[in-house]
Amino acid sequence: MNEIINLRHELHRNPELSGNEKLTAKRIVRFLLNYKPDELYADIAGSGVAAVYKGKEAGPTLLFRCDMDALPIEEYSAKSYKSLNDGVSHLCGHDGHMAMVSALAKGLHENPIGKGRVILFYQPEEENGRGAKESIDQIEELGLLPDFAFAIHNMPQYPFGSIILGKYTFSAASKGMIIRLTGKNSHAAYPENGINPSAAVAEIIQILNGVKYIKFFREYILVTIIHVRVGDVAFGTSPGYAEIMATLRAFDEEHMQKLSNYAVSSTKTIADKHKLTVDIQFTDEFPAAECNPELTHTVETIAKQQERDVIFINQPNRWSEDFAHFTLALPSVIVGLGVGENHPDLHTNTYDFPDEVIPHGVALMEGIINFILR
Known about the structure:
This protein is α/β, with parallel strands linked by helices. Helix content is 32%, strand content 28%. The chain has helices spanning 2-13, 22-32, 94-110, 131-141, 198-209, 253-273, 293-305, 324-329, 358-373; strands at 39-44, 48-54, 57-67, 115-123, 148-155, 163-166, 169-171, 173-182, 186-187, 221-230, 237-238, 241-250, 277-286, 289-290, 310-313, 332-338.
């Protein structure tokens, strides 16, 4: 396991943002070549890598997906493998996800499967929601579309080594909303000669922050304002331009569509009232990650055979995962792996994937391989 831990530390030390995972891919390919996959593909959806291990007989194809990209956040750490890239760090544990999937390569090389195929897939651009969707199309073109797909995501605030499953949906749908309001600049001494969007900005923020209290939405929805800009810093100018950026979340596609429609119509109504033109765009779109019931039961069975704590969440996680595109395209399941009830949260400056949990994730995935292909 020391080799896998060293790989994890190397990946952690050299994080790369979404769409720029080229050196990460090279490190992964270099590692995989030591364990001689039957087929090795690179440059999938940009920097994605797929290693294929084949059995002698025909059988199902299993895909184990891990994510590659890091976050634009400064890491607060004194560890020897702290990020060398200022303002970029693996604070979501993707380095650990890659390490766990890489550990499967060693086992598959030393103990080949008898039937079917196992694909180890390293996916770029998870954090912006683009990687999975693009990857699925290219995987299909390469003849690598699996019968079943699996992913593991580490989860703080849950018992160490526990397995967390969703009953129907594992994680929420989300999207980024960008609102651009255009009025008319004027001298700050004569604001009546211009059209200042600041009052409209205040109204829009109030409306969006209040959507969770509207009874029209029967299920969980949330809007989080993440950025606001009104003009530039010029005390002699009444601005004529503003931007609002927000993240929209819902537990299913129906409520996401209702929430999107409400946010757009409310914004346009307020803009019209203030005589502003408005441009609205959506970005970083993630569908809800659904849970295939048969695969969920399979994972539960294996986890209990391994005497692991199995926890079914009462409602989906409020964060999003672009593995959701796999869950929409083919039988798939994403599994949570508890890393400790007091472990720092994902996307925080002090988070670090715990090396000690790697064997727990590897054992679960090896259990899935043995259950289906051996």
